[in-house]
């Protein structure tokens, strides 16, 4: 069971990372039609996609809320802790994707 948790945590990290990088990169292709600066668009999209990347990585918020509810009502702190870790891994992946786009857009 423990290996399954860490596999899910790494998967959540990678999904959130992929949503931010992929969404910002593919979304910036719209600048070919609108004559806007592509790197600014990438950076803007990456910032806007972070929350959606977390939701996509977690598979929707209802399962997380349900797990919190069962953890609180049944007094299982380990369930709450695991869900918080999954949220942190998803946030880490989204933030890491944003930092990568930031480095690409700023040229550093």
From TrEMBL:
The transmembrane residues are 6-29, 80-105
Which InterPro entries does the record cross-reference, listed alphabetically?
Answer: Spore_YtrH
Q: Which organism is it from?
A: Proteinivorax tanatarense
The protein, known as = YtrH family sporulation protein
Which top-rank group of organisms is this from?
Bacteria
The UniProt keyword set, sorted, is: Membrane, Transmembrane, Transmembrane helix
């Amino acid at each position: 069971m423990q290996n399954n948790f860490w596999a899910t945590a790494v998967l959540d990290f990678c999904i959130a990372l992929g949503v931010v990088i992929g969404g910002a990169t593919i979304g910036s292709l719209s600048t070919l039609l609108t004559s806007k600066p592509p790197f600014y668009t990438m950076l803007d999209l990456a910032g806007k996609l972070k929350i959606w990347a977390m939701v996509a990585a977690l598979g929707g918020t209802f399962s997380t809320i349900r797990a919190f509810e069962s953890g609180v009502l049944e007094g299982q702190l380990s369930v709450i802790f695991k869900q918080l870790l999954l949220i942190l891994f998803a946030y880490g992946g989204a933030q890491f994707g944003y930092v990568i786009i930031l480095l690409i857009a700023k040229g550093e």
